[in-house]
Amino acid sequence: MSLDTPRSEARPERLTAHEARQRLEHERASRHAQLKAIDEVGPDTAEQVMSAQKDTVRRVLAEVEAAFVRVRDGSYGVCRGCSGPIPVERLEILPYTRFCVPCQRDAAV
Asked: What CATH code is carried by the domain that includes residue 31?
């Protein structure tokens, strides 16, 4: 099912703050675990690859932290591009996203 197709089953329009925090806590823990695993890799690993992986994990971790701020201020689940609601299915897959799928596509162009 595409992320921009309408839902056929009755689901809430938005995640609750508790659900959002749970998903974000999971993402945060996963990213911290990734950083720890990268730090524990031996010297045989190429330094450039490790550096790129760390940068990516740190960037996502910063996005997760920013999503916690949006949960606190009540703007979580609101698209930064069009100000419409971000579909729950998208937030379930990418709980720290700031954009709905169409606005994300526009931002990537």
From this structure: 1.20.120.910
